[in-house]
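Write out this protein's structure.
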Amino acid sequence: MSSMRNAVQRRNHKERAQPREREKWGVLEKHKDYSLRAADYNAKKARLKILRQKAAERNPDEFHFGMYSSMTHDRGQKLADRGNKTLSQDAVKLLKTQDAGYLKTLGQQTKKAREKLERAFVLTEGKGVVVRGQVSREGRAERIVFVDNHEEQGQWSPARLKSQDIPFNESDGLADLEEMEEKDKAKKLLNGPPKSQRVIEAENEALRSARILRKKRKRDEETQSSRLKALKSREKDLLIAERELDLQRAKMSGSVGGINKAGVKWRIRERKR
């Protein structure tokens, strides 16, 4: 009889799923999950009860000699020794020397990256005249000067701009030659002879492409300018850290003075000559 009962297809009992409106809370919790969570909660509750009882029964006059060498944090946590060995003075000097070498290497790399960026890009500074890698000193000039090579870049000066006979209309207020060309094309479209629709669309497309290219160049210049600023700041921070490390090494070797833990200033006594 039991074999016949087992031969009959039985119903597959499935676990209840999480309702659709509560799917954001994850899988529906089953009884076994609740049992584990309840056991963990009750264990923590019992542990907290024991700690409260110990705190209530604590003797404020309790003393043992281990209190002399032990320390506690402001929040009452005990600070224990981690077992780290104290390094000797020579070992600390060696580590600081290696740190100084690492900082010097990073400083040199940052300096090279900064110089390379200054030589490679033309950075605009407001409306001033800016040559590749050179800071502008003409406060309100309205032209960007491009040079052919690094030698001409080093020899260039704002005074040469006045000596060169280059036509430039200051009333236009344009800081880029592409803007001047775009303005001339627009004037020709307005004042020139009538053109076909195809030619007008082609010229409008050319103007649109030039405008997009100019905006892209401006964004690139702003990106490179911010990168150059970050490199300069990093180079300055590395230089300050290297100087501070050199000062620490000099204090450890006793070659310079300083202020001790008691706040007393001291300096190396030199031999009279």
